[in-house]
Amino acid sequence: MSSSETQSSMPYRQIRAHYDSETITVYQAYSVTIATAAVEAQKLNASPDFKPNRMTWIKPSWAWMMYRSNYSLKDPQQSHILALKIPHSHFHHILSSASVTPGHDGTTMTAEEKAKPVRVQWDPERSIDMKILPYRSIQIGISGDLATKWVDWIESIEDVTQMARRLKEAVDAGLEGVGEEEMVERGLLPRERVYAVDEELRKTLKMDLE
């Protein structure tokens, strides 16, 4: 199957992530002070620069993290990308606490939806060279009391900034004819798979809407 055929057959809203039997990996970019302290202590809030009451947006998609941070080169506040492993049960709890941000269809959120501590956005997925793809990628914003709780659910923290910058170098050099599997083997991409959720979560996340 060609890349274009694969893209055209991809569900419009689908969670794709790197995960194992116990945890899922999500990404976020931070300043050097926050990231360095987090990795050393294995605590995201180890640095006093970390703002626990500020909404944090986590992303399961490596490609979307690359787009959002420009491969960690966007600005000093996003100069270090962290891979955060969270147990599936806690990740599901985060998703179940979400309301979906309205698109451009004129709809508005109810008072009940606005009160929820998690926001989900379905943004256009990106290829590794920043091209817009015809399906969506989930972004998850955590706020309120949950913003202080979820940092204690993180099982491990890894700085993957150099992986992002090696990918940028490879993209700039040209990846014509290089498949996804080869990029995974070269350590440029994590191995991402479809992350299935139950029907109740699909409804909460409005995954069947286009």
Radius of gyration: 17 Å
Q: How many strands?
A: 9
Largest sheet: 5 strands, antiparallel
Overall pLDDT confidence: 92
Our measurement of the CA-to-CA distance between the termini, rounded to an integer number of angstroms, reads 24 Å
**Approximate shape:** globular
Task: Describe what this molecule looks like in 3D.
It is built from 9 helices and 9 strands. It is an alpha+beta fold and 210 residues long. It has a 5-stranded antiparallel β-sheet. The longest helix has 13 residues, at 161-173. The chain is globular. The two termini are 24 Å apart.
Care to give the gist of this entry?
This protein has 210 residues and is of the alpha+beta class. The chain has helices at 3-8, 32-41, 62-69, 88-96, 111-115, 144-149, 161-173, 180-185, 199-204; strands at 16-19, 23-30, 56-58, 80-87, 98-100, 118-126, 132-142, 156-159, 193-194.
Chart the SSEs and their pairings:
Layout: H1 3-8, E1 16-19, E2 23-30, H2 32-41, E3 56-58, H3 62-69, E4 80-87, H4 88-96, E5 98-100, H5 111-115, E6 118-126, E7 132-142, H6 144-149, E8 156-159, H7 161-173, H8 180-185, E9 193-194, H9 199-204
Comma- or semicolon-separated keywords:
single chain; 210 residues; alpha+beta; five-stranded antiparallel beta sheet; four-stranded mixed beta sheet; 9 helices; 9 strands; 25% strand; disordered N terminus
